[in-house]
Every structure is written in C-alpha cells, then in structure tokens.
Amino acid sequence: MVCQIGYIADYCSTYLNVYFKILGLYLVIITSGQGISQTGDSPPKAAGMDFWSFQSIQRPNLPLVLNQSWIQSPIDNFVLAKLESVGLKPAAPASKRILLRRLTVNLTGLLPTLEELRAFESDTSPHAWDNVIDRLLASPRYGERWGRHWLDVARYGDSNGGDENLYFPNANKYRDYVVHSLNRDQPFSEFVQEQIAGDLMSTGGDPESVRRRIIATGFLVIGTKILAEPDPRKMEMDIIDEQIDTIGKAFMGLSIGCARCHDHKFDPISTRSYYSMAGIFKSTYTMEHYNIVAKWHEREVGNASEIAALKKVRAEMAKLNKDNELINLKAREQIQIKVRQDVAKYLLGANEVISRRRLIGEPEPLGPSVSKNLGKNKGLLFEAEDFDRGNVTVDRLNYGKKIGI
What letter does residue 184 receive in the DSSP assignment? Predict the structure, then answer.
C-alpha cells in the first residue's frame, strides 16, 4: 500500500527533458567526437574519448571461415574464425537433454522436470526448440531469475545498509516491479524512464500505470543512505551523489560520482556536468527530513478502496495500541504494589550489606584483595584480573597488573 519513492516536484517537471539531455549527452559526444569542458562551449576532443566504449557502434564485416556448413547465425562466423585461427574445431552438437538443461537453467535458474525432458525429447517438430524458448520466457520464473541481475545493479536491499541499517518495509514492491517488467517484456527505454521519473510520465489516466510508475521511482531511494549524518546539508548532498553515481553506473557504465570533486580523471565528465545533474535531483522529494535519524519519503499508491481499507486497519491498530498501553499501566501499578509490600525484606537485605561495610575498618576484614582496593570514598575497586573470593589463579603474565579494564 505504501512505497518509498523519490518524488520529483511538479514545478521541476518542465526541466525533466534537461535531465534526459544530460543523460544522452554522452551519446551525442560519441557521435560528434567532442568532449565536455568546464565552460560548456564546443571543446576539442577530450583525452578520454579515444577509449573504445566512447566510440560509435559500427557493424564489422563478417570474417571468412572454412567450415561454412557450421554457420547458423552471423555470430557463429566470429566464433568459428577464432577457433580456426588456432587450429581448433567446434565441439560436437549437444544432445536435446543437455540443451534443455542449459536453456532452462539459464532462463529460469531451475532444472527442467522429468516430464519436460521427455516432452522435448519426443518432440520432432522443426519448431520444438522455439517452442521451449517461448514457454520459458513466458514463465514467471524468468523475471525472477533475470530480475536479480538488475536488482544487483540497482543496489537493491531490504534495508538501507548504512550506519543505522533501517528496514525498508516496502522495498519488496520495487523488487516485484522489476520482476513484472521483465515478465511483460517492457521496452528498456520505458523501464529506464519509469525508474528515474515515473511519477512525471503520462499515464493516460490509468490507475494501474500511475501506481506502477510511482513504485518504479523507488529505484532512487533504495540503497545505502547514511541516515545518521550530523550535518543535514552534507547528508542531502551525499544522497544526491549516491543517486547520480548509481544512475551513471546502472544506465551508462560510467563512474559519474568521481566528478563531484574534480573533472573525471579518465572519462569525459566535468564537474560542471555533475552539478547540472545534481541540481535536478536537489529538487527531488526523496527524504521526509534530514534529522538524526533521517526518514525517507513514502507515498500511498493504492486505489480509493485500498486506501480506505488501510485507514480502517490503522484505526484498529491505534485502538489496540491504546488498549495495550492501559494494560501495561495496570501491570506496572500491580508490580509497584507488590514491591512496596516487600520493602521490609529489601531493608533487611540492605542492612546486611551496610553491616558488612562497617567491618572495613578492621584489619583486612574481607580479605587482602578487598582491603587494598578500598577507594578514598570507601568504595571498592577491582581490576579485571582480581576477584572478591574464590580459588581461581590470577593470570598476570598475559594481561598485566592494573590494566584498567
């Protein structure tokens, strides 16, 4: 019913395109061959632009191979060409049983059942392999298996993992969103946009789309947040930095966070570009407050009937909590009455202790270890290796005398 989200304020929606321009700026750089400067002017080519990941994608020519009969797809040309270059031959084709095991484990993380093995081995139709792939991709296990990879990229966890390690009670809704997105074959571009600014995307009035896209923005809130930082402004900027760093690594494979303090040492990312993005996330409603301990923002995402049912449950819980407080109060009163009735016993016990303390003036009345540890205020001080009574051997070789523990 409630999902932690990074809600971008409505007044910031007009600047949403600016963010996506920044996100896509590096693609423009790749095609234009230009770097990023501190001033934002058209700069000369940056030193990091020569790296292979910043080059435009090109379609290479297929390498020539000798065994043309082995080729079933263009990728096979590259595999076979490398094998032939070192005098190796492709492995023999795998059996249908092995193929099904490989495919099932790869797509679902599970082994095929005996019935599935027998059905595939007995299927001699030319589309048997395609049918198995379609069946496994339609399985709910597919999204669960491959969703885990994205959840690792998105630094998913059921708690914030920081100093306080507070529990995210609704993080599982973002987890389920990722699994569902894979199972319904959602376009990746839409998958990206929903997680960064799903609350600002047009939904056509569809309540389920509104709910799904708000949950998707939980991407901005999960992950390690140091919520006990004493400096609230630093905490806010650290959270923004964590969001920018995750976005750069998850969607672009770049460590944008390095540009927080200086122009990136290797990639063409300037500090100016970093703070252009930081300015956008500065207006993102991620946290309720930045006190110690800070609290993230939560937003109700259910429909009217669900929200009404939730309010009813909360009212019942409030009544039960009040009843519980009354029960505790009554129990405390009964305990106090019982304790007061036993005051005489406590006084007798205290008198024995007081009488024992009066013996301190006598020569070592309680033994040598007690007498030598008497403080100025008649208090007793024992070192870690000393004890009041008993026949335990004191080890002073490994710990030393008066170690002060």
Answer: T
Nearest CA to 215 out of 199, 230, 204 is that of 199
Q: What is the DSSP letter of 228?
A: T
For the chain, what is the domain count? 2
Write down which residue in 238, 269, 300 finishes a domain. Answer: 300
- CA distances to 42, 247, 256 from 265, rounded to whole Å, are 20, 19, 11
263-273 in b/e form (b: 16+ CB < 10 A) is bbeebbbbbeb
Q: What is the identity of the amino acid at 182?
A: L
Bigger pLDDT: 4 vs 232:
232
| pTM attached to this predicted model | 0.68
Helices (H), 283-342: 304-341
In total, the chain counts a number of residues equal to 405
Cβ neighbours, 10 Å, residue 151: 17
Question: Is 386 a residue whose pLDDT tops 80?
Answer: no
Residue 319, in any domain of the structure? no
**How many whole angstroms separate alpha carbon 245 and alpha carbon 235?**
15
CA distance 7 to 173: 16
Is 82 inside a domain boundary?
A: no
306's CB contacts (< 8 A; 6+ apart) are 1
Q: Are residues 205 and 286 in the same domain?
A: yes
In a 10 Å sphere around its CB, with 0-12 CB exposed, 13-18 middle and 19+ buried, how is residue 159 labelled? middle
- Report if residue 50 sits inside a domain: no
Q: State pLDDT tens for residues 289-324.
A: 999 888 888 888 877 888 889 899 999 999 999 999
